[in-house]
## 1
Amino acid sequence: MWGRNVYDSIAKFLQFQLTVNVVAVVVAFVGACAIQDTPLKAVQMLWVNLIMDTLASLALATEMPTEDLLKRKPYGRTSPLISRTMSKNILGHAFYQLLILFALIFAGERFFEIESGRWAALHSPPSEHFTIVFNTFVMMTLFNEINARKIHGERNIFTGLFSNPIYYVIWIATMVAQIFIVQFGGRWFSTAALNLEQWLWCLAFGVGVLLWGQVVTTIPTSGLPKNMAIGGGDVTSTENILSGEYEDPATHEKRSGQILWIRGLTRLQTQVILL
């Protein structure tokens, strides 16, 4: 059970991290090409990376095993680390987040009736426009961290949410830190303080990740291409090596070395057991 829990913890972290990476890289690249500027400043990306790497790894990798783990088959040696369900979640949530962020980048100033930050001068003060983009990205990342707790297509993403104090303490602390960064960290984080209405919209886009997750879950995994599963492979059995099944002359010398090495290791293990 513990082995399955460790495997699931790694998979949860990968699902969350890859989603954030895809969104951040695409936004930075398109922003650099379209407006010759990045909507997310360097120090803001450092904060996102702190959320994505250090804090998320502590939050997602510290969940205790549950009895539900025993209801599933054990993972095989060739099981993919990123399953088709995980790939579906990564691409599905990346699509939603990119759609929201690009809408805010290219039309957000008209929606919120604020000054555009796309063509701001080089040393101009931080704009509300790009602060909303940054804040929305962090909100969607935080709420997607709740989605990332489930990697097998479960619908109830809140099951066991409060069973891990480390998880919800980190989540709440990150939310509080984000509020202080936006409202009071303008000098260091290139942000402008937002009003209540703007904050509510950012939170609404973040909560939308949870609702969108239910839509993504509805997509049947069985209909997806098998090559969407990443990280699997064939494992050569040592029994096949020892039995001399490989008769290709070009690899005979290499196989002979493997046979001698495996036999020596087997004898060493036998001697250790006898001692």
## 2
Amino acid sequence: MQIVYDRHSAGGSNYHLQFTPKYRKSVFRMRPVRKLIEALMRRKAHQLGVRIEAIEFAPDHVHLFVTNCRRYSVSGLANHFKGYSSWYVRRALPEDVSLYLWGDSFWSDGYFYESIGRVTSDTVKFYIERQQGKHWMHIEPDALVKSPNQVSLHAFGI
């Protein structure tokens, strides 16, 4: 993952998304449905200006790792991906889809998401605490927070 630079900002906005077909049916057992959904997800990502780093299917759900999402909320991304693919797959493969699903929905209402960063939450917490301590060091020398695992130069005889 890389930092994305814009005119007035820099950062990363990356998500792990998981979508499940209606009634958790195993519709992805069918290769044509898997292939079409993957192509549709990639096409929609291109249209949105986001990038799919990874996409994997289980019989009853799909996982996506989406990066460069700075212009979209998680719910916005889910709506774009699910709405576009549901509409298209039902028209392109009606016989295959109707073996598992009925009605006008392809996806279940919900979804799973998780924000993905380049560092762990513990690292971010430590960085923030340490940086704030540096700002106060000239006023309160003991304010600099040290990690319990941090080794000082004295340990090396320096």
